[in-house]
Design brief:
Two copies of one chain form a homodimer. By secondary structure, chain A is mainly α. In chain A, 72% of the residues lie in helices and 2% in strands. In chain A, helix 8 runs antiparallel to helix 9. Chain A binds a DNA duplex through helix 3.
Chain lengths: 188, 188
DNA sequence: CATATATCTAAGCAATCGCTTAGATATATG
DNA sequence: CATATATCTAAGCGATTGCTTAGATATATG
């Protein structure tokens, strides 16, 4: 009865996500998205409503990619704290593209937009962070001697540490990042 | 012989710095700078050449402010590691405006522009980071048992931690930031 | 006071921003 | 095959971007 869509949303959004990841929200223009996604603005807007819509779906896409390539491994590990340490190392490899690092898309967005970001964007970000933190708590809890207060405290510590790793990965040498990870887990 | 300038560079640049600090480099427009600085574009360009020029001077202005309100205190302290810990707490207060945090202008810039930022911007950023790191090393070295390798390692660790604190301060609760600082200095 | 000149205002430049729309194209149905 | 309709292309919308410039204004000198 009508013409078929020449693309799949799940495929083009991945290109959008990569662009937002590399450039940030504001700098990424609709024209750049057009080229990266391989569709024109009409299609973009009819599929995702507006630029913010493309970004929200990109965050969702990032979440899935991170789960697949990073989080599931941590989830399934039985190494406790060492599994979290490995997660830190894995994250650096995950964020690397060619010979530079682009950080974590979530952390980048926090840094760029802060707490006065759009409420929908904010919701996705905090939900992602909560998921990771809960997983950290779960792994930390393999040490049964830890009280809930200690677990909460250590998880908070690790979450902030991860943000540091994300930003620092953009400029620091891998030696410096290694020093950071080693030291970070000295006291847990 | 000629008309007098109706403003002082050092005064208007402070307003520019505050704006860049709050909004980031890209989002801050020349029209916004005009209003914040209280001068028009002609004056802005004749004093600072272009937008990048205003930003470079803003970085310099930030450096001075940080030195005055933050770094000098650390420099003059004789508390060793505890002085650095205090520096972390002081930084949070330093970055606070009203009831929200704007992070560190240097860290914000690293996060936004990364290593492919303009070379002049990059130079200022790395020089600032080096100064802070050297100061950390100096304070860590009050413990004479530490080798140069340990000093380097711990300073790297602290530098990345500080970046984490900067980004996290934008979204996390002060309880979470406190947990972070406490844990960060457990193993030094 | 008259003049030279730096500094000001305000208008305007081309380029780009996010977004819309009119008209051409393709395809599942009667 | 003819028709209805979703999807495509491409042009263009007003607003904003960084930056420039022509002309008005003010002031230290001869």
């Amino acid at each position: 009865m009508a013409r078929k869509k020449a693309y799949k949303e799940e495929e083009v959004i991945e290109k959008a996500m990569e662009l937002f990841w590399e450039k940030g929200y504001e700098v990424t223009s609709v024209r750049m998205l057009e080229k990266a996604m391989g569709i024109n603005q009409f299609s973009m807007y009819s599929s995702f409503k507006n630029k913010k819509g493309v970004f929200l779906e990109s965050l969702e896409c990032y979440k899935k990619k991170a789960k697949r390539e990073l989080i599931d491994k941590l989830k399934e590990s039985s190494e406790g704290v060492d599994a979290i340490k490995q997660y830190f190392y894995d994250f650096i490899a995950f964020s690397r593209i060619q010979d530079s690092n682009r950080g974590c898309l979530i952390t980048n967005t926090v840094s760029e937009l802060g707490e006065k970001a759009d409420p929908e964007i904010l919701r996705k970000i905090t939900s992602f962070a909560t998921d990771v933190k809960d997983l950290f708590i779960e792994k930390l809890a393999t040490d049964k001697s830890k009280t809930v207060e200690v677990l909460e405290m250590q998880a908070n510590y690790l979450m902030v540490s991860l943000q540091g790793l994300s930003v620092a990965s953009k400029m620091f040498t891998s030696k410096q990042l290694d020093d950071f990870i080693k030291n970070s887990f000295n006291n847990i």
